[in-house]
Amino acid sequence: MESILIQAIVSGILLGLIYGLIGMGMNIIYGVMRVVNFAHGEFMMLAAYICYWLNRQYATNPLHSLIIIVPLFFGLGFLVYYLFVPRLLNSEDPEMASFLVFFGISLVLSSLILIIWGADPRGIPFPFKRVSVSIGEFFFPLGRLIAGGFCGIVILLLILLLFKTYLGKAIRAIIQNREAVSILGIDTHLLSAFSFGIGLLLVGLAGGLVILSFPAITPMMGSSYTLVAFVVVILGGLGTPLGALLGGFIFGLAENIGAVFMPTSLSPVIAFVLLITMILIRPQGILGEG
Asked: How far apart are CA 88 and CA 240, in angstroms?
């Protein structure tokens, strides 16, 4: 039991890195614009299907596909921002309006994927010779190790961007006070578009890594990952990107450790109990202000 528990903890940390990457993208978008991206999981699903299509057409593995995914989803973030967000920010209730608009976008993306690729689960051949790595008496899935390590590198680069560059400091400033940033003469629309691009870039990366970590993708998976993103963001704190990373670790560990003591289908119950407890005790999240 002890070895199983240790493997569950390591697996939970690796999964938490993926969840944290998804949540950080959503948190940057919400923090900068107060926009609720209800299609977050569907954008991730779209990235996973693009990786699947590239594998079938050109035999690329998911890590190679990220070379295309990164600029594609960064540009998609700019496009989505300028098509929808400025109008949403001028509405009477931007959060509710964005919730409804992006819920509609999520339905459109799910329907398009269903039409193009059908309802059957899709997957790619595992691109590496070894399926797992043994460390002593422990065995860990190689795909999840690679995905977790890649997520860790991306998260580190994101932290450096946010805390060590002028652009990152501007993003953190606009999260704290949008009006003050505009008074300083910074183009808030361009900064917001850049932030939306970063948000979709992160979730696009997560989509490519998910197809490496899990055996199959389906047109229905988007909504479940949107729910994961909401849980992670609320646990860590709305508008705090680093809080999403902490929330990802909590969710990943709760899900994997729970699977040791209860049926796999019930393991997410622990995470949602944590979520409800957090909302009741500290609704702003662990790292949230207020």
From this structure: 22
